[in-house]
Please model this.
Amino acid sequence: MRAFYLLIVLAAASPALADEASIASHRATYSMTDESGSPTGRMEVELLGDACRGYAMLRRLEIDNDFGKVVRTSATWESADGKSYSFNDTLEQDGTEIKSFRGQAERENDATVVRIVAPEEQRAELPANVLFPISRTKALRSAIDISGPGAIMKSMPAYLGAPGFGTKAAQVSTIVQPRRPDPGDLGALQGLKSWHTREAFFVGEAFQDAGPSFEMKATEFENGVVAGFEVIEGERISRGRIEKLELIPAQPCR
Model:
């Protein structure tokens, strides 16, 4: 169940390989399966914004299980300068809200201050170098541009605003491997640069343990679209594969 709480944030948490000039506003629908390949539901993602106005992301995950229909909705917004981040996450079962996680995080002087307002008020100060999702996106892309065409490995602290993380930051270690074009890619993605990524999320004190709290594998394109992903927690695996993609025309940046 814990993996389900984090899946919607880890899967397409940010367009991890797009720089700020090429992050494309888009809507995407993913089919979801478990480790055996059995269908489990679907996820819808909408990303809107630019380097002037900031970035808003809406994710809706529907899962059908023995307890009925479970829907998790997550809405986030990150300022263009990466100094402010808000998040609102709700969990519904058969149309009834059963959990809510809501708050914001901001750069204040020499710290990153996290304030949770639901389910209960919490406040925590994290190091100033903790990055929000889009800011981590830009930092990772910069590392790729500097390193050239080969594989790279990068580790950065991040705060994602997920129920499973609470007020804790995560150290995220990422391996990026360039990918060859595939004729099976959706038409809108044909000809674009793409990468295979593998990320390990060490939450809180997880570095003291034997391994990461969670892992994620993904196929990602230069415009920020994630074509497929796999979230791993121990022996439990959840997979998503893109089925539908709509690229939204960019608005003038003023």
About this structure: DSSP finds two helices and 14 strands in the chain. The mean pLDDT is 86. The two ends are 43 Å apart (CA to CA). The helical segments are 2-10, 133-147.
